[in-house]
Amino acid sequence: MSYLGVYICSILLRSSQHLMHEVNTCGKLMASMSDQIEIGASISELNPAEWDALGDGSPLLSHAFLSALEQTGCVGGETGWQPCPLLISRHGKLVGAVPLYLKSHSYGEYVFDWSWADAYAQHGLEYYPKLVAGIPFTPITGARLLTHDAAIRQQLTEQLVEYLFSLQVSSIHVLFPDDASASTLQQQGWIKRTGVQFRWENQQFASFDAFLMALAHDKRKKIRQERKKVTQAGVHCRQLVGAEITTKDWDFFYACYVNTYLQHRSTPYLTKEFFHALGQRLPEHVMLVLAELDGQPIGGALNLYDKECLYGRYWGALGYIPNLHFELCYYQAQEFCIAQGIRYFEGGAQGEHKLARGFSPRPTCSFHQLVHPDFEAAVRRFVIREEHGMMQYQQELDERAPYKKLDMGS
After folding, report:
1. Nearest Cα to 31, choosing from 144, 146, 149, 180?
2. Which helix (H) or strand (E) holds 195?
């Protein structure tokens, strides 16, 4: 068993003993004496219907998605992502939960705290392990305090703080929470850190051309030129959903996905088995775009979606064709949203180039607690300075909005 595995086992034992002591002595953290609070060993072992009933309906937060990560080796083991969900049960039924992970590094989070870890190391302190509440490898805003009861949401927040100070971790980080989760964390005095992502909104466009007509002239011209070059190169794109995606398609896409990481001299987070499991478990939420040249596949982009939103996730190609990235990752997805009546397209982390393709900036946030009082104070000062810079950055992005300016004099 890995060091992290041994560590999580000791956490599970100590936390279980600690919580039973709390219940039997004061019941301070309980909404009622019938509540049970515990750290689970995995999400896979939980009742899928009970877990999904607590969430916001996003496929990325579903039991199917998170358990697939566990069961195909993307988290757990030696990955540095050890599942340890915080669970509250009442009368034997799950009523509150947090998708919580014990981390031995900061990869795959998209809220960058490497400088915090370096500062700890420079002072002879250990930053890892730490606790992270979020969806592994997924910078998408969503519920993090999973419940539909405000009192339980507060209870989950209090319990996270309890774990922070009773377990041997440096800190806890809640990444990309929705408004309900963020409001509760902010009320409890957590450190708030802000960020910016890019999202496209389908303004009930009748067609892709209707979307283009809403853009400023230079943006509209640029997109048409990019798409024309892809077509002139002989590329044909297919949008596949659910059972239309074959085993061969998944294998090809995985090769593309791996190639993207290799080109950036990085290691892919996800396994081939995960993509196959995704197609089997969430077929109604998967859309794969494949690009073909002379009848042979050359690239692909994978999206997940629900009725309200499409989430752009991964892409790759086995050869270079100018503008293929934009076609697969943005324009095909936008066409799909228009055809399906999906309102939002989340483009993921970073990428100012998305502005020129119809995306708009939107604020994101994360919340943090640190055990060491001096570092906690230093981080609070840091995020205040960072927020001022982020607000200025957001204003600059807003000034570069891609849509036509309204004529206020008409």
Report:
1. 149
2. strand 191-201
Domain for residue 402, yes or no?
no
- For residues 2 and 77, the answer to whether their CB atoms sit within 8 Å is yes
Confirm whether 127 is domain-assigned.
yes
Q: Could you tell me the pTM of the whole model?
A: 0.91
What is the domain extent for residue 246? 203-342
393 shares a domain with 262: no
Token pair 């992270």 is found at 132
**310 token code pair:** 């499409």
Claim to verify: residue 129 and residue 236 sit in the same structural domain: no
Per-residue pLDDT of the chain (410 residues; tens, 9 = 90+): 444 444 454 554 454 344 333 333 333 344 445 799 999 999 999 999 999 999 999 999 999 999 999 999 999 999 999 999 999 999 999 999 999 999 999 999 999 999 999 999 999 999 999 999 999 999 999 999 999 999 999 999 999 999 998 888 999 999 999 999 999 999 999 999 999 999 999 999 999 999 999 999 999 999 999 999 999 999 999 999 999 999 999 999 999 999 999 998 999 999 999 999 999 999 999 999 999 999 999 999 999 999 999 999 999 999 999 999 999 999 999 999 999 999 999 987 778 899 999 999 999 999 999 999 999 999 999 999 999 999 998 889 888 889 987 543 43
Q: Which residues share a beta bridge with 345?
A: 200, 310
Taking 3-state DSSP, the helix, strand and coil percentages for the chain, each rounded to the nearest 5, stand at: 45, 25, 30
43 and 186 share a domain? yes
Residue with tokens 């055990």: 371
What is the β-pairing status of strands 171-175 and 309-317? unpaired
Q: Are residues 8 and 90 in the same domain?
A: yes
Whether 282 contacts 59, CB under 8 Å? yes
Instruction: For residue 129, say if its preceding peptide bond is cis, omega within 30 degrees of 0.
Output: yes
What does 88-115 look like in DSSP terms, one character per residue?
A: EEETTEEEEEE-EEEESS-TT-SS--HH
Instruction: Give long-range contacts, CB 8 A cutoff, 24+ apart: 277-284.
Output: 277/68, 277/71, 277/72, 278/65, 278/68, 279/242, 279/245, 279/250, 281/64, 281/65, 281/68, 282/59, 282/62, 282/64, 282/65, 283/241, 283/242, 283/243, 283/245, 284/242
